[in-house]
Target: Helix-turn-helix domain-containing protein
Amino acid sequence: MSPDELRLVTAVRTLAANGELREQRVTRRLRLREIADSAGASTSTVHRWEQGSATPSAASALRLAEIFEITAGAA
Model:
């Protein structure tokens, strides 16, 4: 994993831990199902990420970074 990818994973996991993933989703007017389908996860898994009760895997975090347009420079 490259340093930029590691920064992205860390940024997304921080958002999840702080309960800010839902805020990101709502701001972009995306549905839970849309995020789940794009991230390759179930809606219940995405819900747990949003609640901060679960942490996305590195692969899922990278997909979420892409969905939420998080860049390595901003991470």
Remarks:
- The chain has a mean pLDDT of 91.
- The CA atoms of residues 14 and 20 lie 8 Å apart.
